[in-house]
Amino acid sequence: MTTLIPDPADQQISSVPRRSVWRQLLRDPQAIMTGVIIVLLSLFGLLSPLISPHDPNGASLDAINASPGTAGYLLGGDESGRDILSQLFYSLQTSVVSAVIGAGVALAVGVIAGLVGGYFGNAVRSGTEWLFSLILTFPGLITLIVLLPLTHGDYRWTMLVLGVLLSPGTYRIVRNLVLGVKKELYIDAARVSGLSDIRILGRHVLYAVRGPIIVNTAFLMGTAIASQSGLAFLGVGAKDVPSFGLMIHSGFNNIDAAPLQFVWPCVALGVYTGCMVLFGNSLRDAFSGPRPKRQKPAQGLRLAATAAPTSAVVDGERVDEPMLAVEDLGISFPGSTGPREVVKGVSLTVDPGEVVGLVGESGSGKTQTAFAVLGVLAPEARVTRGSVRIEGRELVGLSESELRSLRGRVVSYIPQEPMSNLDPSFTVGAQLTERVRRTLKVSRQEARQTVLDLLARVEIPDPQRVFSSYPHQISGGMAQRVLIAGAVASRPRLLIADEPTTALDVTVQAEILDLLRGLQKEFGMAILLVTHNFGVVADICDRIAVMQGGEIVETGTTREVFHTPKHPYTRGLLDAILDESAPDGDSARTIGAAR
Amino acid sequence: MLLYALRRLGIGVVLAVLVTFITYLLLSTSFRDMVSTLLGPDATPDSVTGRLHDLGYDRPLVVQYGDWLAHAVRGDLGTSLFTSQAVAPAVLSHMVVTMSIVLPGLAIALILSVILGVWAASRSGAPDRIAQGISLVGHVVPALLTAIVLVVVFAVELKIFPATGYVQFGDSPVGWLRSTTLPVVVLVVAGMAAITAQVRGSMIDELGKDYVRTLRTAGLPSWSIVLKHALRNAGSPALTVTSLQFIQLFSHSVIIENVFALPGFGSFAFTSAQSIDVPVIMGVTIVSVVLVTVVNLIADIVNGYLNPKARLH
């Protein structure tokens, strides 16, 4: 459990039903505008033989460089006396054909290969991977030019080749989606029910991957049109096939005599391809659901706009203050109906050298409380009320740099999931050394020795090897020891441990708890241990605070709470210890759900 | 690491050979057309066949290709059928012109994208809107149009830069800079679109990960977390996009150098393809393919350095 609030974007990408995509598109002004323009321009292109006032290649002496508005030549004539408007219509037709061929081929090749490569085993996939590495090695437009003897300048053949060259993008999208979908249950269910491979591919997978493919199509069409125009501009292709590229070329060369001529095709090309890209963006938004507004990345502990002034504003340090004092703390997250409080007035204290267990089921707000003490709440979280003080110093309202002076030195953190909490790109030694140098201000040599000593202290058998290993090269238990070593490196006076054993094997769990207990005795640290596991609490804690639904429901010494639990919720949790042998070990959650 | 680099190099070489072989196969359908053009209006079917034989184009294709490849690996790309010029120096001299706009364009686009993407991801608000705006402009406006607008505004109207023409660096460095500035700007705009979006996206992902929170609790300063840890992890996908953008910009440059009348690779390739000058076409192909392969290899090696897991496979 790292956050209480699921990321809304995560859930919706795969689950937006078709109808709501349409509704979303119809509510998006950008989608409507660009969609209408695309349809209109495409219609002009398709109907060009009917609506063009002149033959696009028919030259008339009267119309040479005719200015816009000349009778019969609405946009004027070009350098050889051809009607610019008619050429624009026919260029649109060329563009439509290019878009259909280019995008069509790219989709056909990419989708089929993606389905095959993603659905069948590794052997087939390595074949398709090679094929697309090969296609990616062809040097883009140079290939289209080089193959001119083959295509004889017919833009339709050129677009066909372009389609193949564009297919790797589609292939990757489809392959990745299929690999993801394949893992989902319904494909297994389809297999069990005896559907053939082909039908599974067609019905289930294709349905699941349609969104990204539709979005991709809009971009492919824009690319095909822009490429065709670019090649025509270069002169690749027949001179009698009207194209924006050719028009831009002749208008550009004629810029002194008729400065407006190059503007028309430029505008038409820009609007047509631009609308495709913008429409594609709208489609993507519609398929992925409304995107949450991006928050300014996490900085300090931010108060909600409506927050009441903290109850106890303390200036300077107080002698009689506990190590940690949380008073009436409230934390809210934005929900669909305004901010929702997930921590509702929590108060607890930890004395110097004391070990306090913060116990509760998933979602009870215990991790958010711990994050608030460290000042690392998620960017969208707000402190709505209350106070968090470490050795009398108020944390609520402090900036990131003010909090930084406490972190590592005074208060430190051990996370739940060891692997995801180490930076995968640096060796264990490099990460710990940076940390030690930063907090203890020592030389590189000293820091290195400190880290090696620490690794030995946390009972890592071969410190030298682990020092130079990357996180993916060590086991989860080893990684958790590394994180503990980092947390205690600068002898903090308060350690926040968030489910430090949950992600580990049962045998490793006991060793890690022993290690924590030993370090606590040795350094005299206070520990706030966040857990759902009463077994862990009984093992190590002096006092307990039980949390449920964002509130503390019971506090007391470990002995008191175990012998005479007052709150029914606590009794439920305690009964669950008997079920500790349950496969997931997460008995509190089971109890919480059953209540 | 060395093993990893060698394996990547091996894959690159195999792919390069395959691409040139496929191109040769495709071109082989045009050999007769080529020779008819060569012989001019007097060509008869018999004389075409004879000439094909003289030139060795009637041998089995695999033998012909093997022969070409054997010379190519020694740097001998033959001579043009039409001008009798040696192919290799001609191809390379045009490549230099094209690369003198592509490489600065890509480098500047990469630097600006990283700055803008990191800024956008770590600040949100106005920087984020600027980054997304620039990215959108690059996606929406075709490079051809950017080029033409720049020429019209800065060269034709304001006369700040020369509209067309290429000045050799050796002749006048300032002239070279002036003649390449506008085309480079076009490529920077085109290249930034994809790279900025990628850097921004993967930086946002990285900054939301667990290890970033843990680094914050360790008391590390923000600059170290963003620029050292998150950026290094975001580097891998950004690098992939950058190497794909190289091919993109190479493609765009073919059109753009035409707008600015630079004697680059595109017009050279076009002329040779129009006349079906097979030795030159093959020269153009292999030099481009080697270029693409080298760029991919560099990307792979840098990726292996950035991402320790990539070295495994």
UniProtKB/TrEMBL annotation, chain A:
Pfam families attached to this UniProt entry: ABC_tran, BPD_transp_1, oligo_HPY, OppC_N
Protein's cellular compartments: Cell membrane; Membrane
Keyword ATP-binding attached: yes
Matching PROSITE patterns: ABC_TM1, ABC_TRANSPORTER_1, ABC_TRANSPORTER_2
InterPro entries in alphabetical order: AAA+_ATPase, ABC_Ni/Peptide_Import, ABC_transporter-like_ATP-bd, ABC_transporter-like_CS, MetI-like, MetI-like_sf, Oligopep_ABC_C, OppC_N
Positions of the ABC transmembrane type-1 domain: 92-284
Highest taxon listed in the record's lineage: Bacteria
Protein name: Dipeptide/oligopeptide/nickel ABC transporter permease/ATP-binding protein
Organism: Pseudonocardia zijingensis
From TrEMBL, chain B:
Organism per entry: Pseudonocardia zijingensis
PROSITE patterns assigned to the protein according to its UniProt record, in alphabetical order: ABC_TM1
Name recorded for this polypeptide: ABC transporter permease
UniProt keywords, alphabetically: Cell membrane, Membrane, Transmembrane, Transmembrane helix, Transport
Topology relative to the membrane: Multi-pass membrane protein
InterPro entries: BPD_transp_1_N, MetI-like, MetI-like_sf
Family, as annotated: Belongs to the binding-protein-dependent transport system permease family.
Subcellular location: Cell membrane
Entry superkingdom: Bacteria
PANTHER family linked: DIPEPTIDE TRANSPORT SYSTEM PERMEASE PROTEIN DPPB-RELATED, PEPTIDE ABC TRANSPORTER PERMEASE PROTEIN
Start and end residues of each ABC transmembrane type-1 domain: 95-299
Matching SUPFAM superfamilies: MetI-like (SSF161098)
